[in-house]
Amino acid sequence: MITLIHMAEGKPHPSSTKTSPRSRPPRPAEAARYACEQLASLIVHEPEGVSGVTRDEDGWVVSVDVLEVARIPDTTSLLATYEVRVDQRGELQEYRRVRRYRRGAADDC
């Protein structure tokens, strides 16, 4: 059994009472959750959501959107997308910021 500690509160994470699913390869939703939890423990900003999950030969690549600078009005806040790689067990392998943008800004197509 794995006990996860919620970094902001120092309390056991709600999912820590379950038996770890890491004994098998994670599903896309699990890989995304693991990526968000592990990224949040390394950077000072909380993830807002996941914008992509891709399977690769070593595990998963998860695009995690993070609020980096909150502003008023909210449409001027700065967000970033981090590329987070987790292995077949859901363990963090690497992460990097790949994009920084203003909330509501359209993608260049």
Overview of this protein structure:
This protein has 109 residues and is mainly beta. The chain has one domain: Nuclear Transport Factor 2, Chain: A (Roll). Helices cover 14% and strands 42% of the residues. The protein is built from 1 helix and 6 strands; from the N terminus they run ββαββββ. The strands form 2 sheets. Strands 3-4-5-6 form a 4-stranded antiparallel beta sheet, covered by helices on one side. A hairpin with a 4-residue loop joins β5 (78-87) and β6. The longest helix is centred in the first third of the chain and has 15 residues, at 28-42. It is elongated. Residues 1-21 have low confidence and may be disordered.
In short:
This is Gas vesicle synthesis family protein. The chain has one helix at residues 28-42; strands at residues 5-6, 11-12, 47-56, 59-69, 78-87, 92-102. With 109 residues, the protein is mainly beta.
Task: Detail the topology: elements first, then pairings.
Blueprint: E1 5-6, E2 11-12, H1 28-42, E3 47-56, E4 59-69, E5 78-87, E6 92-102
Antiparallel strand pairs: 1-2, 3-4, 4-5, 5-6
Rg, nearest Å: 15 Å
As a percent range, the share of strand residues is: 35-45%
Overall geometric form: elongated
Secondary-structure element order, as H and E? Answer: EEHEEEE
